[in-house]
């Protein structure tokens, strides 16, 4: 996914930014693509659940 699309793919800009931050952090630490994708999805899911979306 490209940067502009990341921010419009979720219900909230905040959850999208958190997912992006998680993905960048995991990728920077050298994790596999699958781990980065699953980590970002998990962060977005948890953020939206906590925000009540």
Instruction: Quote the average pLDDT.
Output: 93
User: How large is the radius of gyration?
Assistant: 11 Å
Poorly predicted regions are: none
The coarse silhouette is globular
Structurally, the number of domains stands at: 1
Q: SSE order, as H and E?
A: HHH
SSE-based structural type: mainly alpha
Number of helices: 3
User: Distance N terminus to C terminus?
Assistant: 22 Å
Query: What share of residues are in beta strands?
Result: under 5%
| Total strands | 0
Largest sheet: none
- What percent of the residues sit in helical stretches (DSSP H or I)? over 70%
What does this structure look like?
The chain has helices spanning 3-8, 13-28, 33-51. The chain contains 3 helices and no strands. The chain has 53 residues and is mainly α. Helix content is 77%, strand content 0%. It has one domain (3-51). The chain is globular.
Briefly say what this structure is.
With 53 residues, the chain is an all-alpha fold. Helices cover 77% and strands 0% of the residues. The longest helix is centred in the last third of the chain and has 19 residues, at 33-51.
Topology overview:
Elements: H1 3-8, H2 13-28, H3 33-51
Comma- or semicolon-separated keywords:
mainly alpha
